[in-house]
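re: ur question from yesterday

yeah so i grabbed the chain u mentioned. its 104 aa long if i counted rite. heres the sequnce exactly as i have it in my notes:
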Amino acid sequence: MLKEKIIDFKKNILEKNYYEAHEDLEEIWFPIRKEKNDLCLVLKGFINGAVAMELYKRERFLQSKNVHKVYLKYVTLERIDKTEFKKEFLELQVFMNEEFSKIL
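ran it thru and got these structure tokens back, copy pasting raw so excuse formatting
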């Protein structure tokens, strides 16, 4: 199910539907949010990445920059490496960084 949600997430990011992208991954993250394991934290990071993009789209630049820092805090190679979705998350990290370079 996570792999399908990542596909939906990327599609929504490309279509600039950042709020919907956030919702795609939050569906997976919400039930495990209290576990604070690497999977949970990486998902939290990607969700915050979509939120940062949405804030930028709404011209809330300072808030966007602050939330982008949260993305960077949670989406790290060390954390990604400890998950069972290493390949998917590494690809998503590259994708997100490319998208951030277009708007930030």
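noticed a couple things. The first helix runs from residue 2 to 14. also The CA atoms of residues 22 and 28 lie 11 Å apart.
anyway ttyl
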